[in-house]
Design a protein that fits this description.
Number of helices: 7
CATH topology: Metallo-beta-lactamase, Chain A
Helix content: 25-40%
Strand order of the largest sheet: 1-2-3-4-5-6-7
Distance between the termini: 30 Å
CATH architecture: 4-Layer Sandwich
CATH class: Alpha Beta
Number of domains: 1
Radius of gyration: 17 Å
CATH superfamily: Ribonuclease Z/Hydroxyacylglutathione hydrolase-like
Bound molecules: fe (ii) ion
Shape: globular
Largest sheet: 7 strands, mixed
Number of strands: 13
């Protein structure tokens, strides 16, 4: 199997930057695909890092991050969940960003402790709480699906940027920097393949669950959707929800046929 690759950084919304890497993975349909693995930086009065990338890519990840921001200025590290592809460089970032606090919830903090990570700089998100700094408001959002119960995405009300953690991830034929560059059929198949791997429980969820999850997203009216495992998707909310609905229908049909 090939090694993960760090693919660079790019602006994805005002003040928002994507730190991109990708991981070669076997696909359920045979063959090999690539899974994007993204972290994000929100610059501004109180800079915030969303997730910390893959430990195997520590050197290029940290160099790219420090190229975007002197890490003494970093104030927040939002950890979406404790999977290794999201916390891989957390110790290195904590070491080089002494003023930064880790934003997570109760279960996330517990898993940090179990993993031997320091919890003395945790800013605990209470249920219903949100993060405000300056004139910016970061609202926690439960992703439409997830692979760890502590998963917590967020919505930046100033730029209408929505981060959905692992949701809307897709196995792709090749790395790209914009979801809009992926042919529709490839994106639909990629989302179906990824959701079958990451959230097979979707097969047992009824239509009501999906409608409620979709309604939460549509009411936010995001201008761009960021995922840990999909290139930035601008103005694609309808397309992503349609692809996810198709994936869930397929998972349910496969489960009934099994
Ligand atoms: Fe995950
Ligand atoms: Fe992930």
């Amino acid at each position: 199997m090939q090694e993960p690759v760090f693919s660079g950084v790019g602006a994805v919304a005002p003040d928002w930057f994507e730190l991109r890497s990708h991981l070669p993975v076997p696909s359920p349909d045979g063959g090999c695909r690539v899974l994007p693995v993204n972290a994000f930086l929100l610059r501004g009065r109180e800079p915030m890092l969303l997730d910390t990338g893959l430990a195997a890519l520590r050197t290029p990840f940290m160099a790219a991050l420090e190229g975007l921001l002197p890490l003494e200025e970093l104030r927040w590290i939002w950890i979406s969940h404790m999977d290794a592809d999201h916390v891989g460089n957390l110790p290195a970032v904590l070491e080089r960003a002494p003023e930064a606090r880790v934003v997570t919830n109760f279960l996330g903090m517990g898993k940090m402790a179990l993993a031997g990570l320091p919890t003395d700089r945790v800013h605990l998100l209470e249920p219903g709480g949100w993060l405000t700094f300056g004139d910016r408001e970061i609202v926690p959002v439960r992703p439409p699906y997830y692979d760890a119960p502590e998963s917590i995405g967020c919505f930046d009300t100033a730029t209408r940027t929505l981060f959905t953690v692992d949701a809307f991830g897709a196995l792709l034929d090749a790395p790209v920097t914009e979801a809009a560059a992926i042919p529709d059929a490839v994106l639909r198949a990629g989302i179906a393949n990824w959701s079958a791997i990451d959230a097979p429980w979707l097969a047992g969820m009824g239509e009501d669950y999906l409608l409620r999850a979709f309604d939460r997203i549509e009411r936010l009216s995001p201008s761009v959707i960021l995922s840990g495992h999909l290139p930035a998707a601008r103005g694609m909310t309808g397309a992503l929800l349609s692809h996810l609905a198709a994936a869930c229908a397929q998972l349910s049909a496969d489960a009934r046929a099994a």
